[in-house]
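Here is a typical sample entry:
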Amino acid sequence: MRIDLHTHSTASDGTDSPTELVRNAAAAGLDVVALTDHDTVRGHAEAIAALPEGLTLVTGAELSCRIDGVSLHMLAYLFDPDEPDLARERELVRDDRVPRARTMVGKLQALGVPIEWEQAARIAGDGSVGRPHIAAALVELGVVGSVSDAFTPAWLANGGRAYAEKHELDPFDAIRLVKAAGGVTVFAHPLAVKRGEVVPESSIARLAAAGLDGIEVDHMDHDETTRARLRGLALELGLLTTGSSDYHGSHKTVGLGEYTTDPEIYGEITRRATGAFPVPGAGGARPA
């Protein structure tokens, strides 16, 4: 089985619609794909309706969190999307996205970048404008060479010159809320230092003690040394280890299924979940 547990669609900051994403996942030879848009489940219904036979969808979201002044992302899988407390927190984060994005555009303008809000909104399409859309605008303008180059302290990285704070969950609250909704939590790309400051291992230990289920190890932003370090930490703390592409379509160079999760780990995630269950595909034809 080939299992990719971290992808994004146009429901947040990816470039594939949910329909395109599941079709592309099937074409890439995946057996299981998780749709984990930022702080929203808006793409799930469309993805399920278009799900090709032979592909299983894991519903989820990537929750924006902050601990001790450091941002982190928490992958939440197979939770009840209608659980009111978790739904309310996701809404608070989403409502803050546009004001935050406008602030970042304003900071870029103050730095002399000829970016306009309309440009970022055009790139976002049906999704809420976020940092990847603003980064894509910087590429269009020739300010940086790639979206990844925009996520540096000079521009949009955490604490960077054009960075703006946003409403974020306390990760301990996120774990509690996701568990109350029957879901499973995995700390996304925990040591992705190229994105900015990362949480110390002592904080990961505290999160594990609070019920964190796993950490994402095999990820494009972790080199081999970092992956080995994380595997040792996971073993020490009794955490599951996952691998995922963090696919965003054309916003990133990584492809679907470039990093994958062991089937035994996937089985354990589904065993722990009670809020929702993986959806087997039957809504559309699997690409030849």
